[in-house]
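Shapes recur. One chain:

:::
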Amino acid sequence: MTHDELEDVQLRGSENDDLWKKYRTLKQDSDQIATLWQAWSAETRQALQKRMRRSFDGPNYPARLESLAADPGRGKGFLSLAKADLEPFIDAIRKDNRRLASIPECATFCLKKAVREAAAAELSQLQPPNAQATAHSWKVKLHGRFLLETEKWPPDVRDEFREKCDLLEERGSQLNSPLVKPVAGTSGPRLTRLRLGGGYRIIFARDGKNFFLLAGGKKRGLSDDRFYQGMKETATSRYRGSSK
């Protein structure tokens, strides 16, 4: 298991203690990286977007961006060039956790994360909402109890949350992975995950022309199974209660 595999990992049972121990260590490291990324994401993303424009200018630019957003590992040549843009972020990790910065896969994980987000951001600027999405007039609604819960989140997370809500209203069903992703094993309303930085995840349901945000929080070292099971139950209960 590596940092790159951690997002979608599914661990069940406790028969392999060594694997669980490595998972917990990687989870703690990944959370620390995500926290530092909050302070450096804007600067690093802008530098990478400028490099993308210089490197991929031409009619195939959107296709190259889509490829990087889906799998940064495909653009090995670009990853090599982009390392210089990531250096300030890696320096921040070195100051905070020298052991973590010395792990080769840590720098690779950070680089892929940065390139994926920069490519998605650049692509969103190139492709304005299509006529169908604009005509649909998407709206974002928050369940009352969930709204109260978000008020306890750190200011930077709340700021990003508002930005993502604006993006949902602007792009609607055009959004896809890695920002939004269906939650597996749901019954009743079809639930979808909205990804924020710092390990925060939001669960919402599409209800006609509305995106109904129901529950969310920080994973805090939980496995996907444990975290999403609790979130699914809360979201489903709130959705059914509000539909009466």
Notes: Residues 132-244 form a domain with the YaeB-like fold fold (CATH 3.30.2310.20). The longest strand covers residues 210-218.
